Amino acid sequence: MEKKQQEADMKNKAGNLLSWVASSAVLIEIDQYTKALAVARLKNQQPFVILDGVFEFLYSENRGAAFGLMQGRQGFFFLIGIVVLAVAGYAMLRMPGWQEKRYHWLKLCVIMITAGAVGNMIDRVSQGYVVDFLYFKLINFPIFNVADIYVVVACILFILLMLFYYKEEELGQIFPFMKNKKAEE
To answer: Catalytic pick from 9, 31, 52, 148?
Structure first.
């Protein structure tokens, strides 16, 4: 019986990793495609206005982090990306298989964060900057890209899931650093 359980666990882990890599790859491809379009159609051009004074496509090269912070620290951002990938892979290995529907939302968060991190890491490694092109002019919000959307949506969803959907014990099984030490005593 124990051997069957081990085989089932290995199959679940392999399924999780395969789906994580394949789904992330699709989202990364979408991100890279939109950035290539931005380069081809927007670089050295006037902004493409969608809603005058509200939203436009505006080519930008971001050599820093969110909001242009920490300009020129590409090695640091690369290391952060590697850490994000390691944590994401670890989480996918610890989650139940896809037949356990309760964890689908959490897996989606991991996939989106992975795609966002890798999408921007590809730019940093290949070009030394990240291509941004989505600009909410109305509120003068920093220019961003599809990979950034993945990360922001995933983080918001993860926070909501932590607050309203998953129990602390469930998250502690996947992310041991989230376990309540006092509850274990």
So the answer is: 148
Q: Tokens 């940093």 appear where?
A: 124
Say whether 132 is catalytic.
yes
* Catalytic residue flag (residue 123): no
The single residue of 9, 52, 123, 132 carrying the catalytic annotation is 132
Question: pTM for the complete prediction?
Answer: 0.86
pLDDT by 10-residue block (mean), the chain, 185 residues: 78 88 97 97 94 94 66 73 91 86 94 96 90 92 93 96 88 75 51
Reference 59, options 143, 147, 166; nearest CA is: 143
Q: Please list, in sequence order, all residues whose beta carbon lies within 8 angstroms of the beta carbon of residue 7, skipping any fewer than 6 positions away.
A: none
**Amino acid letter at 30?**
I
Asked if 58 contacts 44 with a C-beta cutoff of 8 angstroms, the reply is no
